[in-house]
Amino acid sequence: MLKQKQQVVVYAESRHYYQYYEKIISDLLENDISVCYLTSDNSDPVLKENNKKFTCIHVKWMLGFLFSKIRAHVLIMTMTDLGNYLYKRSGDVGCYVYMFHAAVSTHQQYNKNAFRNYDAVFCIGEFQEKEFRKVEKLFSFREKELIAYGYPLIDTIRQKSNTGAETRTDKLNVLVAPSWFDGCIFETCIDELLKQLSVLPYNIILRSHPEYEKRKARNFRKINKQVEEYANITLDTIPDVMKRLQATDILITDRSGIAFEYAFGTGRPVLFLETELKINNPDYLKIGIVPVENSIRNQIGLLLSPSDLDQLGHKINELINSASEFNLRIAKLGNELFYNSEASYKRGLDYIKTKINRD
């Protein structure tokens, strides 16, 4: 299947991850660089896109064996823990590149060794570079190449939102999109949240994280049944997060990185439910840097305790009335946080091209 050495291999755990690769895959192909796209989702629509330079392969079983045998100049993933568990490095891959699928810090929501075995990381902002260097120094990790890449998905969402590509309705659309850890909305307060949302005059859409559906399948089926009881609440089945965010007027989330894609992509504020912190690295406090997902919440939206969900309607109205004020604040903060620019994106593209030409 992958007998010949590939120029670039991209791996997607499911159809939801292609949107993070789309721009760079397109530009690599335009630069006459071939891309082999591996997906573990047989319903990934990209599987229909096979052409001479863009080979798409569905592979789910024997992944551990396949990963150890891949031959490529560059392998790009959004999956952490390379080399730590099942997915080992191949001696025939020249460079492993990690690309973020969440605009958050690197040391609280990810375990200490999550990025350790990558050769390069495409950082979305200077705050991530500082975190990586601090971790490498503190734990004597090998220095990796940090590329000031940015987060192209935010720019794409912004561009499409500004052109009015989203589908609007006569009612406001409220999106509930939690993270997938044990303390998320779906695990802690979904019953009361649905009850409070059901009496509001809005279209309510629930969007689950793909990892939640995979890891908490029984609970997710239960939520499906609950949703059927409410006329104004539906489940989101659109894989492309951009289309959903463009059509969203109010986002409700917990500790999910979707908050930053929404706020900085659309310029609209977020309602955060103050669930427990999402901590996958018990040593994160040793880094001495406050994770960005904790420090900027009140700058891009409003906070609400799960014990105060009877105030939900009031908080949503407050967000609607202060949307213009938040828009200005969000734009300024985004310029300070992210590398997002065509020049930074090109650094990532050029880095991959250099690694191919070097071999």
Topology (SSEs and partners):
Blueprint: E1 6-12, H1 18-30, E2 35-39, E3 54-58, H2 63-69, E4 72-77, E5 93-99, E6 120-123, H3 126-139, E7 145-148, H4 152-162, E8 173-176, H5 185-188, H6 190-197, E9 203-206, H7 210-215, H8 217-227, E10 233-235, H9 241-246, E11 250-253, H10 258-266, E12 270-273, H11 292-295, E13 301-304, H12 312-321, H13 323-337, H14 342-358
Parallel strand pairs: 1-2, 1-4, 2-3, 4-5, 5-6, 6-7, 8-9, 8-11, 9-10, 11-12, 12-13
Can you tell me about this structure?
- The protein is globular.
- It folds into two domains: 165 residues, Rossmann fold (3-Layer(aba) Sandwich); 182 residues, CDP-glycerol glycerophosphotransferase, C-terminal domain (Rossmann fold).
- Helices cover 38% and strands 17% of the residues.
- It is α/β, with parallel strands linked by helices and 359 residues long.
- The longest helix has 17 residues.
- It has 14 helices and 13 strands.
